Structures are given as structure tokens and as C-alpha cells.
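Case study.
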Amino acid sequence: MNYRFQIVLLFTLTFSFLTHLEGQDDDVYMIKKIHDEALGKGKAYPWLTDLCTKHGERIAGSPAYLGAANYTKDILAGIKGVQSYHQPCESSYWKRGAKEQVKIIGKNGKNIRLSALSLGNSVATPTEGITAEVIEVQSLDEVEKLGKEKISGKIVFYNRPMDPTQLRTFSAYGGAVDQRVYGPSKAAEFGAVAALVRSMTTSLDDFPHTGVTIYKDSLNKIPGIAISTLDAEKLSRAIKKGPVNVFLKTNCQTIGMKSAPTVIGEIKGSVFPEEIIVVGGHLDSWDVGQGAHDDGAGCIQSMEVLRLFTALGYQPKRTIRCVLFSNEENGLAGGRTYAKLSNEKNEFHLAALESDSGGFSPKGFSFEADTSVFKSYYKHVSKWLPLLESYGLHFEMGGSGADIGPLKSQKGLLIGLRPDSQRYFDFHHTANDRIENVNKRELELGAAAMASLIYLIDKYGIK
Amino acid sequence: MNYRFQIVLLFTLTFSFLTHLEGQDDDVYMIKKIHDEALGKGKAYPWLTDLCTKHGERIAGSPAYLGAANYTKDILAGIKGVQSYHQPCESSYWKRGAKEQVKIIGKNGKNIRLSALSLGNSVATPTEGITAEVIEVQSLDEVEKLGKEKISGKIVFYNRPMDPTQLRTFSAYGGAVDQRVYGPSKAAEFGAVAALVRSMTTSLDDFPHTGVTIYKDSLNKIPGIAISTLDAEKLSRAIKKGPVNVFLKTNCQTIGMKSAPTVIGEIKGSVFPEEIIVVGGHLDSWDVGQGAHDDGAGCIQSMEVLRLFTALGYQPKRTIRCVLFSNEENGLAGGRTYAKLSNEKNEFHLAALESDSGGFSPKGFSFEADTSVFKSYYKHVSKWLPLLESYGLHFEMGGSGADIGPLKSQKGLLIGLRPDSQRYFDFHHTANDRIENVNKRELELGAAAMASLIYLIDKYGIK
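After joint prediction, the assembly is written out as follows.
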């Protein structure tokens, strides 16, 4: 190596080292500014308060949903540099109707009312209601084992609790929710007249938790109803003493297809406008409560990401698209429609980040992608970990979000925000999912975490 | 190296490697069992519910405190293998008396009431109250700058908010609490007649937050009163429009020394009984609210550590002592007395762990010790990190707890549980610090984290 070459090499190395350092310093500074803005002058909390109090109970297809779609479109339009619009989406509209009546028929003539909510997409009971004996089971398998002889003509009561020893409540939910999703159809297969399901929560309280049930088309559709965990315990105790009859009356129905647009707000990329980065949540909620954690929080955090960039004068290189999906709860029409239209337009989503696990303290992100690209993407993003760890954020492999899932075939990176999960199922799908149960700072920190990661993806790409 | 020696070395290495692995497997299994027991069959939540609802408002020296001291001693005595007792402690007893009256004197004859709480250890106003003009300041320094001319005869209103951009709320608290602790005395130094202090929280709400104020003996003692953040904003707005007079009437007083025992429950060590490991919190709370997060949670978690060991049949090698300290809030008599008696008996505390940052999701531990021993201790405990990281627990250097601080001179390891801090100052020192605001699972996870670390310290020591 000659002297002249050594000098050149030394200069090049020094320069690239300095550039590298400077780049990192810039990132440290930008991520700090994002957090300062989100915590000091954030809009997430007042926006979520408005969404919850003015447009609660916004099941897809309902007038409340349309109100929320207009409200969020207008807010997005008010952020400098953002173009907002509705993406048309047709969604099945399911309506609960009058309050559910569920009661244990007392032997002494005194009935005991149970706190209940029909499951989403459930059929109603006949107008006169249903009275039948209840049989308690712990699983779908048990229904199969008991068979027609024991099940026929009965109300099947699924009472397997979520496992409290699971560290992550989503794992406990995953281990119990088959009872709600497939339980009514499984019971119908063996001649049951209705199904009751213990609410999906590790708490013992009086809130029934609704959520979708899925019918097998080939089978008779029977009513599916969630009862609160305290009432599930009560019913179980009664059954242990001898045969129990329960009266059920519900009048929910699927009304039919309705317009329920997905809401989009977009900042065009200044260098690679054809590379799209989505940040989103789902705008629909259940028809009870305000959809504060599920998923008003995720929507508002995604909107706040755009506002943070604008407020800090950050001009993205890539196209950043905030997408508030429709109908996640009972059909996923928003996510499917979005991906279909995107594929038709030959779009490429470099990355998509969904926040749909509640507005709690963020603990990090989980990543997934097509196996052909995942390893290189994950290796690349892992380099940013030192920038985020001081904010208590960690990376892991795992699922992203239901709405962005259909984008996987575009071979970009799919990401889920992972907040602390301990309180989520205190509120999930209940009348108690309200703004009072969202902590302002926790919500803001989630938005800041999302904006920080989106900033890095936008600035450096993922390969 | 000869052949025979190689064989011996290989055997030794293999054996020590296997032993090491086996030891780690045991620990993985034990820590999982601790978490399963705490989350599946934990007693922390029902115990804390009882403590809060039956023995709330338990300021040291009060009858409520004595009730709590008896309740917790009895629970500890009921855990197999635990000896429980009261350690006598004399504590200054301060009493709030009748509800505080704080109002802005309206120019139109209409007064505006402000939500207020006297600061702990504050003197009262004269019986007839105080009416004076309010002067708003942002700091103690500003009082000095304004000097006697501007301050004399006035009510000084400290209104510097906690910095919301601090990631950790405890840092924001640390940056603002000098106003509450030293503000009244500083104002008195320049002739003020009373001091109002903006409540220590980043929330905007109607809850005044009390907390201790410390008078300089050489100075006149003037009343110190906290007002809610919403009312601080209101008062500040009024002052911007022109001079504002406020009327204050309080009748708190320091009653004198009372008995307020520290509660101790102990499992004698089976191998090294002379090496003591403390796990504790402080049993006293303020005289408003139930002291649920501050610090009922820490006390109950510490009691649960002993129960977890007993329930799992774990026989500690070292002496594990659960200590529920008295009078942390307004004097620290419990911590000081405990350390003094311990030193007199020539005891050695190998380690002490305090939980006094609320019953929220645990994020890890912070460690401190005398500088002569800290490095080697920290290096040793850091080896356990892989066992705890899968539970979301991390280690850092930093403060431990006020009550265990006086043990530092014994040159053991002092440890603080670090829960998520975002919600702590929503409740801290207010009437809203109630059991409803404690999440069962978060409380249980804290107890499990503490038991896991204490188990490792007990089993392996710290050097």
C-alpha cells in the first residue's frame, strides 16, 4: 500500500466514520424531538377524546361509523401537507337491537338476571325467546365427546377461563377464544339450541365481552351470547347443584351491506413516492363502549404520526399513508378491500405498521414478512435497536395486525406495535372501553414510538 | 499437555458445563413456578383490597395506621414458617383537621373555590384564615430575585409544572418537587404569609396532591397548601388579568409523637441465617385516599414474596425479612429506626429490595451500593439478566428506596423495583390512590419479579 493511497483511505474512512456518527446523532436528536413533541404538545389525547365521546359505538355500517369517518378525514385534512380521502368499502352491518335478556329460571320462581351481550354476527332467538337446560363444557372437543345425545335441545355453556398464568394476555386470549368464534356452530352441529360463552378476560367482573362468532354455512345458526365472568362463575355454581334452565331473548340481526369507508391520509414521498409506508389502525369498534383502546387509540396514534412529522418539519422521502381501516371487528372488509385495490394498482408497500393492541405503554414492535425477505429485513431494522432501547422499546418476531395482513404478498415488512398487555382484556369489546381508561401519556408514548420507527424506515429503507 | 490430563480436563469442563446448565434449568423452572403461582393463585390483590378498604388513610401515628400494622402482622403470621412481630417506632403524628378552604375572592362578590390539600407537616392558618394578594412564581430562585419588597405580605404561588417531556415521571417529579418541599420556607424567608403549590402531576385534573413540606427551623413557619393542576391553571389565568386576592383557612397540626410500629415477617435462613435479605415497602400512607399504589402495593408484594416461597416449598438459605416500614411519608422514622437497631445488633444486610413506585407492570430493578462494593455486586447480579429478560425485566444503576437507604452503610446491595411510571402521578398523594386504580395482574407481576430476584440472591449470594 503506498503512502498516497494510505492518506486517501484514511481520509475516506474518517469521513465515512464521521458521517456515520453524525447520522446517528441526527437520529438520536430526531427521536428525542418526536417524543418531546408527542408528550409536550401532542394531539393524540384530545383527538381520541373527541372520537370516543362524539363517535363511540361505531360498528362498521352504522351512522356512528360514518360520523367517525368524516371526523378523522377532516382532522387529517387539517394537517399541513396531508391529502385525506375516503376509500369506498362495503361492509356487512350487524345490529344488536334491544338489550339482551338472559336469566336463570329460579326453582322458587325468582329468576336471576345475567349480564350478557350477543356475539357479533349472531342470529337472534325467536321472538318468544328460548328456554332450555344448560350444559357446561370446557371446550369444543368436549361437545364432540358428549355428542348429540347429551347436547341436543340444550344451551351449551362454554366456561373455560383464559389462562391467568400466561404472561401476555393475548396468548391467554388465543388459548380461549375458539369457544367464542367456533363454539356456537360446534354446538349447533350436535343439536344445541343456543350457546353461552364465558367472557374473554382474566378479570372477574360484571362486564360481558362481545366479539365475533363465525357460523359454518352448512350448519343451523343458533344464537351465541357472552356472559360476564362473574355471572359465568354464578351459572357454573348453580349447575353444580343440579339441572339449570336458562331463558334467552335477543333480537340482533344482520341488516345487510352498507357503505363504511376506510379513511386515508397521505404525505407524498419526496424521493421515492412509489414506496409506500402504511401506519394505521381500525376505525370501527364494537357497538358498545367507545372503542377507546380497540382501536380508537391505534387510529389516533397513526394520525398523530403524520402530525408529528409535519410539526417537526420532517419531509418524508417515501409516501407515508395513515390508513384507518373499516370493519376489522366483524368481517375485515376494510383490510381486504385496501389490499385488493392496492394490488390492482400495482402498488408496493415497503412497510406497514398497525397499532391494534390498545393505547398502553409501548414495549416495542413485532415484525413479520414473507419468508423470502424476512431475514434480511429483520437484520437491517435490528441495527436501529440501540436508538429505541433507551425508550424501553424492544424488537421481536411475531404477528403484525389483522388489517395489514393481506398486504403480506407484496413482500414488504409488516409490523405490530406491542404495548403492555396486562390491562387490555379489562376493556376489550365491552361497554367499559372508554376514554377514562386511556392514560394520556401512555397513548402519546405509543404514537412517539410509532413515529420514531416510521422515521427510520423512511430515512434508511429496510434493505 | 498429556493425554491423561486432557481427559481429566475434558471431564471437568463437561461436568461443570452440565452442572451450570442444570442450575440454570432449575432457575428457569423456579422463576416460571413463581410467576404461575403469583398470577394463578396470588394473594396480593385480595390482601391489598382488604388493606385499602379497611385500613385506608393510614398516616403514621393514626389509629388507621395501627389497624394496618395489626392486619399485616396477622397475615404474615398466617404464612407457614414466618415469624411476625412489630418493631416499636415513635413517629410524629400530623393531622389535617377540617377540610381546607381556599378561594379566589371574586371582584363581583362571587368567590371561586379551589381544590386544595394542606401539605404534610404544614402549620395551619390563624383561626380566622388569611386573605392576601397572590404572587405567581416559577421557582424558588424567582422568590429570591423578587425579594422582600415584592414578596412580603403576599401568598406565594409556585406554578412550575412537572416537565411532561421527561420519559420517566419520577424525573419530572424530581425537577418540580423542590417547590413543595422547600417552597413555603423560602417564601417565609422573604416575608410571605402563605404558599400555594401547583400539584405534582403531569395530568390536568381536579385532584390536589399533598406531600411533605420541610420548614427551616430558623424561619417563620407559614401554611403550605397544594391546589389541583386545573385550579392552578385557573388561578394563573385570573392573575394574568390583574391582582388576585385569595382566602385560605386550614387547621392542620402536628399532634406529637405516637407509636407507629414497623411490621416485620421473617423466614430464618437454613444455611446462612446471619445474612439478611430485606424485601419491603412502607405501610404508612397519606391521610387521604387508600394508599393503594403508595405504598400498599409495595407492602403487599413484599408479603407475597414470603407466601410464594412457602407455597412453592422453597426453603431459603439466608434470612428473608419482609419489612413494612413506618412513617416514610413525613419523617422516615421507620427506616431510620430499623437501620439504627440493626446496626446496634451488628446485623448484616446482604441485600434490601424496596417496592415504592406503585403496583404497575414491572420493568426491572435499579441497583445501588457503597462504591467500594458496587461494581463487583452489579457484575455478579448481571449474570442473572437472561433469566429475567423474558419477563420484560431489565437492570440499571440507580436509587433503591427511601426506607432502605439508611442500610447502605452495611455495604450490602440496595435494590428498587422499577414499575412502569406513566400512571403513578395520576394517583400519588391524592384521594384517588384507591384499589380500583390498581390492576390485579400488574400488581401480581411485580410480586413475582421481586420473588424471582430474591430467590436468585438467596440461592447464589451476590459475590
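Observations recorded in class. The longest strand of chain B covers residues 272-282. DSSP finds 13 helices and 18 strands in chain B. We will return to this complex in the next lecture.
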